[in-house]
UniProtKB/TrEMBL annotation:
Annotated organism of origin: Vreelandella zhuhanensis
InterPro entries xrefs: aa-tRNA-synth_I_CS, Arg-tRNA-ligase, Arg-tRNA-synth_N, Arg-tRNA-synth_N_sf, ArgRS_core, DALR_anticod-bd, Rossmann-like_a/b/a_fold, tRNAsynth_Ia_anticodon-bd
Protein name, per record: Arginine--tRNA ligase
Top-rank lineage group of the source organism: Bacteria
Protein family according to the UniProt entry: Belongs to the class-I aminoacyl-tRNA synthetase family.
Subcellular location: Cytoplasm
A GO molecular function held by the record: ATP binding
Keywords, sorted A to Z: Aminoacyl-tRNA synthetase, ATP-binding, Cytoplasm, Ligase, Nucleotide-binding, Protein biosynthesis
Motif, 'HIGH' region: chain positions: 128-138
Record has Ligase as a keyword: yes
Record's catalysed reaction(s): tRNA(Arg) + L-arginine + ATP = L-arginyl-tRNA(Arg) + AMP + diphosphate
EC number: 6.1.1.19
Length: 561
RNA sequence: GCGCCCAUAGCUCAACCGGAUAGAGCAACGGCCUUCUAAGCCGUAGGUUGCAGGUUCGAUUCCUGCUGGGCGCGCCA
């Protein structure tokens, strides 16, 4: 429909250029948008406003000329000029109703597109170090990152989900020391407890399993405990595997799967870190000062230079980061999106600067970042800060256990990444109309119920009869639903392009609202076969889009509630 | 002090690369279940989009300055 209108307007411009009414050199990107207010018709274009200046005419006057030159089309019943010069189009019912046929025809594919042309995209998200269970912040990253991947897949990209983690640094040593302390019967209150040791209950669990000689299997490793409390390296190996498994279980419970787990240690083992240093030094972007090796990142927009190699000879985290991203580039990812907590935003400029200094043709501003702000969890209006499992933070699993996977995913992905999020446990777990997840799922279940009812009555849905009678869907409420359905592909495209998963959540809420309104206004189970089937067709199309949208968020679409 | 992000109804949040009268939900008030699931619907009320300027036909959206909040400013990650 939208495309039809664009081509009509295009036709008008061509005609007017021929007639000399419009200058030939005029270039216009024709924009047609669905209207917010149905008094403005179904679609509107600001073309006359855009062209007014180059055409040397007043907007409303130009709008009149454009309308006069508009080719006839059965899909458009009325065209009006409104406001400062908008051209409003009223779609014929039959034309608008075609979306129902289209949705039923496309099924799961409705809303999907090939915009990405199979281009490889890598999305790195979560990337938690294996030092504890995943916390809410990781949860937000997981929800946003996974939804983003689903959006990119739906728009035709070849997506790789990647999880990067450090399995060897100072913090991992700290983990091993903490487990060792527990294995030796020490607690945080003891004088010899490691400085900055991890205190959660899970540390004791790891220690117990280690002493018991347990085996753990994670996605990318399998380790059997040695049981010797004096062997710190063995403890470390076991602890990392144990927490990798723990995080695997967190992610599994959350319904997120990764294609690649990338180990920071592999960059050292394969000499990638050394290579990166060498390249940076050769390019003349480094210098030594106070026993450390520095990279002149200020030459690439950073506000201070950064240490690459500490005076003790170890590298800072920053260097493997650069090596890792070089690796991504070398794997052929022209588009890489890093989903991270905004508390790490300072790494963005740094990593990009390092990549520029490599001088290997990586574009400025590569890779892309999606940064999410902090999450605060509240219960009964009070911030929740502790969890038995992890000690000082709320875990993803705590939330899933308490409010369920659907609500957790929805709540964490339904807000813009760059605004702070308050996760209200009471709201998320309430089985009531306060809860937006249920509002959407209920709409889906309602259609399913409707379908069951007709089947019970021996009035099975007649697909052909429905499609032949879509013109009967005449009420304002039905039209509102149809117009909403028609917008879905555009919303998906936009959400993917802008990397904004929350747009899907928002869309689903409005679609569910349109549907509930329609449900109350228009009865589906009527005697008239043609009418009943047409309406049922609309219901089924709505169900399909709700399902497709929920699937993009990784949220289930229950058949009954 | 410097950098990044945010500020929209009493509360939680939307607003589709600048569009028409800024929208939902919750909370408040008034209605709707012998009829497809009331986890729903209809109606009423609620706003100087933090403040002050600027850009233009038009600004919640873009720019500048301020105020308030979050995060960061390690040879930690």
């Amino acid at each position: 429909m939208k495309d039809t209108i664009i081509s009509l307007l295009d036709g008008a411009i061509v005609t007017l250029k021929h007639q000399g009414v419009l200058p030939n050199d005029i270039q216009a990107v024709i924009k047609v948008d669905p209207t917010k207010d149905k008094a403005h018709g179904d679609y509107a274009s600001n073309l006359a406003l855009i062209l007014a200046k180059p055409a040397g005419k007043k907007p409303r006057e130009l709008a009149e000329i454009l309308i006069a030159a508009l080719p006839q089309d059965a899909a458009v019943t009325k065209v009006e000029i409104a406001g400062p010069g908008f051209i409003n189009f009223f779609a014929a019912t039959t034309a608008a109703a075609q979306v129902v046929a289209q949705v039923l025809d496309c099924g799961d594919a409705f809303g999907r597109s090939l915009i990405g042309k199979g281009e490889k995209v890598q999305v790195e998200f979560v990337s938690a170090n294996p030092t504890g269970p995943l916390h809410v912040g990781h949860g937000r990253g997981a929800a946003i990152g996974d939804c983003l991947c689903r959006l990119l897949e739906a728009t035709g990209y070849d997506v790789t989900r990647e999880f990067y983690y450090n399995d060897a640094g100072v913090q991992i040593r700290n983990l091993a020391l903490s487990v060792q302390a527990r294995a030796k019967g020490l607690g945080p209150e003891d004088a010899s407890w490691p400085k900055d040791g991890y205190r959660g209950q899970y540390i004791s669990d790891v220690a117990d399993d280690y002493l018991a000689g347990a085996s753990v299997a994670a996605d990318d490793r399998h380790v059997t405990a040695k049981g010797d409390p004096d062997d710190l390296d063995a403890i470390q190996e076991f602890a990392v595997a144990w927490l990798r498994r723990e995080q695997d279980l967190d992610l599994k419970a959350f319904g997120v799967e990764f294609d690649v787990y990338f180990l920071e240690s592999s960059l050292y083992e394969e000499g990638k870190v050394e290579e990166t240093v060498k390249r940076l030094v050769e390019n003349g972007h480094t210098y030594e000062d106070a026993g450390a090796l520095w990279l002149r990142t200020t030459a690439f927009g950073d506000d201070k230079d950064r240490v690459m190699r500490k005076k003790d000879g170890d590298y800072t985290y920053f260097l493997p980061d650069v090596a890792y991203h070089l690796n991504k580039w070398q794997r052929g990812f022209k588009t890489v999106i890093n989903e991270q907590g905004a508390d790490h935003h300072s790494t963005v400029t740094r990593v990009r600067a390092g990549l520029q200094a490599l001088e290997v043709g990586i574009p400025q501003g590569w890779p892309d970042y999606v940064l999410h702000q902090m999450v605060m969890v509240t219960r009964s209006g009070v911030e929740v800060k502790i969890s038995k499992r992890a000690g000082s933070y709320v875990t993803v699993r705590d939330l899933i256990d308490e409010v369920g996977r659907d609500a957790t995913r929805f709540f964490l992905a339904a807000r813009r990444a760059d605004s702070q999020l308050t996760f209200d446990i009471d709201l998320a777990r309430s089985q009531s109309n306060d809860n937006p997840v249920y509002y959407i799922q209920y709409a889906h279940a309602r259609v399913c119920s409707m379908l069951r009812k007709t089947q019970d009555a021996g009035q099975d849905f007649d697909h052909d009869l429905a499609l032949a009678n879509l013109a009967l869907l005449e009420s304002d409420q039905e039209k509102a639903v149809m117009n909403r359905l028609a917008r879905f592909p555009g919303v998906v495209e936009n959400a993917a392009k802008n990397r904004e998963p929350q747009q899907i959540a928002q869309y689903l809420l409005t679609l569910a609202g349109d549907f509930h309104t329609c449900y109350n206004a228009v009865k589906v189970m009527v005697e008239d076969d043609t009418l009943r089937n047409a309406r049922l067709g609309l219901g089924l199309a709505t169900r399909q889009v709700l399902r497709n949208g929920l699937d993009l968020m990784g949220v289930s679409a229950p058949e009954e509630m």
